[in-house]
């Protein structure tokens, strides 16, 4: 294979036969790796075959530890279970001319109980009860004409030849040198380097880091953990081998960097590797630490994070102000986007890489070139409603092109979408995917229709069935002694809010929703929710959702009639936001319960604003409390009213009425129900919570403290008159 492509084989037969074939083919290759659901089966059943062979074993769960590593031979044993993420990760670790093999039984694989299926199934489903349609899909892909996997009898095949050692310090490719030139030119405040795996990002960064230090620049590097920069560090050390200067890798943990930051940038350059694995608020804080910031991450690929990261974070970086400072290379733009296209770990147009990307939808679709979350504040005027198609399980096998479109949309919109999610939507019996498509209903209901697969998606939503838990199980969850798989919303209301009846109700949770950007702000996602509601009405009590709370997303769900019932107390590691749960009742009993649950939320949230949510954006707090006056118990006591009256009409000091002032502000916010932005409310709330009011005062056109106090008295007078 002069083109440096990988050798791919599909072994079928007993585990002993497939292991023997793999060891035969890889006997001249260095340290073969065997990956399986349970390594103990190999250690117990095949000890004789393994004896004397220099190889390593790992489970599917340990596959992520091999990100960034390079292997000459990998056997992925799928006989007892399938992990899509392990497959995509490990295929990306095999070097050019290396061996990537998949082992399957001779026949009956699709009907065999899958031991890895448990983690996809909610209570009470068990793997032996479920038909895996994902396995059928994967098997079809392995046997299709574009599959790189050879199924030739191995009896006559000679072992693969030994591979030439990889040069310790390979010269940078022309493409890498061009990107490095851009970084060293220092003409942008921020650089974002996004590329698929195997393109040499870490090698480039390590070499550039060494050059900057040799040129006297003050440089720091950070990443989610030091394991993520092993390749970067190796190249950094190698680049300094012949240097007269000695430097230690200037690695500093992200949180430590932020703690030591100041208004004046401390570094000339900050390198952030695997940036998409860090929360967005942390990335924004890191972007202020150095004069030049370099953020590197994977595009699509194995974490399923790069595209979402690029869309969200790049938008923020592009609007940065360019600092004014003297420099031989002045900054002339806020952001430069950089990429590497040519693979360095294997040859170009590699059949294995192409197959993995196509099978798990890891590359952009021509029909969805630029996608983002649909959970935005849409216009009230919507076009004609589009037909909706509901797919589950075996349905996807009849609509493979819609499966591809749906995941291209989801990968682009949700940075936590991963290859494992393909299996989840196909194999979890509680999951139904709803698609809004530009076509007529006849095309949708007949997969044999000549144009059934040719129309682009407007919007996609994944819905999971939850709740209807037995009384004994609900009590165990309430008491903290059981945590059954799945059932996110009823479990959270039971275990964290102490709502005893939450487990009895039936829920459909909108787990993911995304809309084509060409269709955003036109009511498309709202129409899809309406279609889902029409199907749900006779079957369930609540529609519900749980998501990383930001103002625009909360606004979307409020507009569609959902009410907040729980806000998490810790931030999601990926999004850097608190998780908000909302419900929409679908019958009279559910409406009564939703009122009670929302009233409970308002009461606890009003206290927790001070106890747990010091960093929650003011605008989001206001949005969550607006229109809640009917759900609030009387906040202002007669004593509170006297305090406020003395402040408004006399000379009572403001600091002496702060508790009463906070209650009054929460009441004022609760009386507002238009969900429009009121600058005065931000000033009121920030003052009540002891936050800095300077920015909100300017937005409200208040010239200073005196004008602010006058506004307070006007608002409080109106409140007293209304009671």
Automatic annotation (TrEMBL):
<keyword id="KW-0963">Cytoplasm</keyword>
<keyword id="KW-0808">Transferase</keyword>
<dbReference type="GO" id="GO:1904812">
    <property type="term" value="P:rRNA acetylation involved in maturation of SSU-rRNA"/>
</dbReference>
<feature type="binding site">
    <location>
        <begin position="513"/>
        <end position="515"/>
    </location>
    <ligand>
        <name>acetyl-CoA</name>
    </ligand>
</feature>
<protein>
    <recommendedName>
        <fullName>tRNA(Met) cytidine acetyltransferase TmcA</fullName>
        <ecNumber>2.3.1.193</ecNumber>
    </recommendedName>
</protein>
<dbReference type="Pfam" id="PF05127">
    <property type="entry name" value="NAT10_TcmA_helicase"/>
</dbReference>
<dbReference type="InterPro" id="IPR013562">
    <property type="entry name" value="TmcA/NAT10_N"/>
</dbReference>
<dbReference type="GO" id="GO:1990883">
    <property type="term" value="F:18S rRNA cytidine N-acetyltransferase activity"/>
</dbReference>
<dbReference type="InterPro" id="IPR027417">
    <property type="entry name" value="P-loop_NTPase"/>
</dbReference>
<dbReference type="InterPro" id="IPR024914">
    <property type="entry name" value="tRNA_acetyltr_TmcA"/>
</dbReference>
<comment type="similarity">
    <text>Belongs to the TmcA family.</text>
</comment>
<dbReference type="InterPro" id="IPR032672">
    <property type="entry name" value="TmcA/NAT10/Kre33"/>
</dbReference>
<dbReference type="GO" id="GO:0005524">
    <property type="term" value="F:ATP binding"/>
</dbReference>
<dbReference type="InterPro" id="IPR016181">
    <property type="entry name" value="Acyl_CoA_acyltransferase"/>
</dbReference>
<dbReference type="Pfam" id="PF08351">
    <property type="entry name" value="TmcA_N"/>
</dbReference>
<feature type="binding site">
    <location>
        <position position="345"/>
    </location>
    <ligand>
        <name>ATP</name>
    </ligand>
</feature>
<keyword id="KW-0820">tRNA-binding</keyword>
<keyword id="KW-0067">ATP-binding</keyword>
<dbReference type="GO" id="GO:0002101">
    <property type="term" value="P:tRNA wobble cytosine modification"/>
</dbReference>
<dbReference type="GO" id="GO:0051391">
    <property type="term" value="P:tRNA acetylation"/>
</dbReference>
<feature type="domain" description="TmcA/NAT10 N-terminal">
    <location>
        <begin position="3"/>
        <end position="146"/>
    </location>
</feature>
<keyword id="KW-0819">tRNA processing</keyword>
<keyword id="KW-0694">RNA-binding</keyword>
<comment type="function">
    <text>Catalyzes the formation of N(4)-acetylcytidine (ac(4)C) at the wobble position of tRNA(Met), by using acetyl-CoA as an acetyl donor and ATP (or GTP).</text>
</comment>
<dbReference type="Pfam" id="PF13718">
    <property type="entry name" value="GNAT_acetyltr_2"/>
</dbReference>
<dbReference type="InterPro" id="IPR007807">
    <property type="entry name" value="TcmA/NAT10_helicase"/>
</dbReference>
<keyword id="KW-0012">Acyltransferase</keyword>
<feature type="domain" description="TcmA/NAT10 helicase">
    <location>
        <begin position="192"/>
        <end position="362"/>
    </location>
</feature>
<keyword id="KW-0547">Nucleotide-binding</keyword>
<feature type="binding site">
    <location>
        <position position="176"/>
    </location>
    <ligand>
        <name>ATP</name>
    </ligand>
</feature>
<dbReference type="InterPro" id="IPR038321">
    <property type="entry name" value="TmcA_C_sf"/>
</dbReference>
<dbReference type="GO" id="GO:0051392">
    <property type="term" value="F:tRNA cytidine N4-acetyltransferase activity"/>
</dbReference>
<dbReference type="GO" id="GO:0005737">
    <property type="term" value="C:cytoplasm"/>
</dbReference>
<feature type="domain" description="N-acetyltransferase">
    <location>
        <begin position="407"/>
        <end position="530"/>
    </location>
</feature>
<dbReference type="InterPro" id="IPR000182">
    <property type="entry name" value="GNAT_dom"/>
</dbReference>
<dbReference type="GO" id="GO:0000049">
    <property type="term" value="F:tRNA binding"/>
</dbReference>
């Amino acid at each position: 294979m002069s083109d440096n492509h990988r050798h791919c084989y599909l072994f079928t037969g007993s585990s002993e036969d497939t292991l023997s074939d793999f060891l035969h083919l890889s006997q001249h290759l260095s340290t073969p790796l065997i990956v399986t659901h349970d390594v103990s089966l190999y250690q117990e059943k095949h000890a004789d075959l393994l004896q004397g062979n220099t190889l390593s074993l790992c489970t599917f769960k340990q596959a992520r530890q091999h990100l960034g590593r390079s292997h000459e031979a990998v056997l992925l044993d799928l006989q007892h279970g399938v992990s899509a993420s392990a497959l995509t990760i490990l295929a990306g670790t095999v070097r050019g001319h290396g061996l990537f093999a998949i082992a399957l039984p001779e026949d009956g694989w699709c009907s065999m109980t899958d031991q890895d299926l448990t983690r996809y199934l909610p209570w009470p489903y068990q793997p032996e009860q479920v038909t895996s349609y994902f396995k059928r899909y994967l098997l079809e892909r392995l046997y299709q004409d574009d599959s790189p996997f050879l199924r030739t009898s191995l009896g006559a095949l000679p072992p693969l030849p030994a591979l030439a050692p990889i040069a310790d310090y390979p010269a940078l490719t022309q493409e890498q040198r061009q990107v490095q030139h851009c970084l060293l030119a220092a003409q942008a405040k921020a650089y974002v380097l996004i590329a698929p795996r195997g393109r040499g990002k870490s090698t480039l960064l390590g070499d550039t880091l060494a050059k900057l230090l040799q040129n006297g620049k003050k440089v720091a590097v950070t990443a989610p953990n030091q394991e993520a920069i092993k390749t970067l560090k190796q190249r950094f050390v190698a680049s300094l081998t012949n240097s007269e200067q000695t430097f230690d890798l200037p690695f500093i943990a992200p949180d430590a960097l932020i703690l030591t930051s100041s208004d004046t940038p401390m570094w000339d350059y900050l390198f952030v590797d695997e940036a998409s694995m860090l929360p967005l608020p942390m990335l924004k804080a890191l972007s202020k630490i150095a004069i030049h910031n370099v953020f590197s991450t994977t595009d699509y690929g194995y974490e399923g994070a790069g595209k979402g990261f690029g869309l969200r974070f790049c938008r923020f970086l592009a609007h940065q102000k360019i600092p004014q400072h003297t420099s031989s290379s002045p900054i002339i733009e806020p952001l430069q986007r950089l990429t590497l296209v040519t693979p360095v770990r294997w040859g170009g147009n590699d059949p294995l890489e192409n197959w993995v990307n196509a099978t798990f939808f890891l590359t952009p679709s021509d029909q969805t070139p630029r996608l983002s979350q649909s959970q935005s504040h849409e216009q009230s005027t919507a076009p004609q409603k589009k037909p909706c198609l509901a797919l589950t399980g075996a349905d996807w096998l009849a609509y493979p092109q819609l499966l591809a479109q749906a995941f291209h949309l989801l990968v682009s919109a949700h940075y936590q979408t991963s290859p494992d999610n393909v299996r989840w939507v196909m194999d979890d019996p509680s999951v139904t995917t709803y698609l809004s498509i530009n076509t007529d209903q006849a095309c949708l209901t007949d997969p044999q229709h000549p144009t059934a697969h040719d129309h682009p998606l407007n919007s996609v939503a994944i819905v999971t069935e939850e709740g209807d838990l037995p009384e004994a199980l609900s009590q165990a969850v309430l008491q903290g002694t059981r945590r059954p798989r799945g059932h996110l919303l009823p479990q959270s209301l039971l275990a964290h809010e102490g709502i005893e009846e939450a487990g009895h109700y039936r829920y459909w949770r909108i787990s993911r929703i995304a809309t084509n950007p060409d269709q955003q702000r036109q009511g498309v996602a709202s129409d899809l929710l309406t279609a889902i509601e029409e199907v749900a009405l006779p079957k369930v009590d609540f529609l519900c959702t749980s998501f990383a709370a930001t103002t625009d997303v909360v606004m979307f769900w409020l507009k569609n009639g959902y009410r907040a019932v729980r806000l998490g107390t810790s931030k999601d590691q990926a999004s850097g936001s608190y998780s908000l749960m909302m419900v929409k009742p679908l019958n009279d009993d559910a409406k009564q319960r939703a009122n009670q649950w929302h009233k409970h939320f308002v009461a606890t949230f009003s206290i927790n604003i001070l106890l747990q949510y010091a960093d929650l954006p003011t605008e989001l707090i206001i949005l969550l409390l607006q229109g809640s006056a009917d759900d609030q118990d009387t906040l202002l006591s007669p004593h509170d009213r006297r305090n406020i009256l003395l402040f408004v009409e006399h000379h009572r000091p403001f600091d002496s009425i702060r508790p009463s002032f906070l209650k009054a502000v929460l009441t004022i916010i609760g009386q507002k129900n238009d969900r429009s932005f009121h600058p005065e409310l931000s000033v009121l709330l920030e003052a009540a919570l002891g936050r800095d009011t300077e920015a909100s005062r300017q937005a409200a056109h208040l010239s200073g403290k005196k004008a602010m106090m006058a506004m307070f008295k006007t608002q409080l007078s109106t409140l007293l008159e209304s009671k």
